[in-house]
Amino acid sequence: MDDVARARDAAREALANVEPERLRETLDDRLADAAVTPGVLSLVTARALDPEVDLETVVDRAAGVQLIYEGLRLTRWLAHEEPWATAATRESDIDADMDVLAADVLVSRGFSLLAHTGAAGAAVEVVRAFGRDQTRRGEEGLDPAEATALDRNLEVDALELAVVAGTTAVGGDPPAELLEYARELAADCDREFPPPGRALPETTADRIADISDRAVSATDR
Known about the structure:
Blueprint: H1 3-13, H2 21-32, H3 37-49, H4 59-81, H5 90-114, H6 120-137, H7 144-169, H8 176-187, H9 204-220
């Protein structure tokens, strides 16, 4: 199984017991075609740092990262579009309410998967930062360029969380250069990660391993 399928399946499996059925279907539909770059990066990071790692011990972390990102991304869309304010029918109004509930479930289930891991603190900070950014974005008279930059912070924070989740899964903390690399990966994303088939550059694992090796060498000196 490739990393894209592994990350997506883990995220969907984490929601398999959600009730009622309509909410579960809403969640599953959202994940079915989602870009899973954050989840994949968690897996790639763990394997790059420890080629012998059993990825089955990492998939819950990858799912947690993916669910938090997907929930916050949906929250961002809801805050901007306010679909319930323009709902033309009772059904569309219900759909908007379902999306609000789905966003809450995605984030809370993601938290539960990371709660007892070394990425728990980073996950909390991602949500706090998102709240600050979106509060700032909602201020009247904000420059459009700054609003766009505030929105893009979510993708940056999600990939930083991904490398934290992957690194702590193999018993370490990410060096500053690895976090910077995560920010580089997110830099070109205009509030949207690439399609699933292009989740990450092919050189990502090699870059992560190289960064880790340099960090270890610097510590040894």
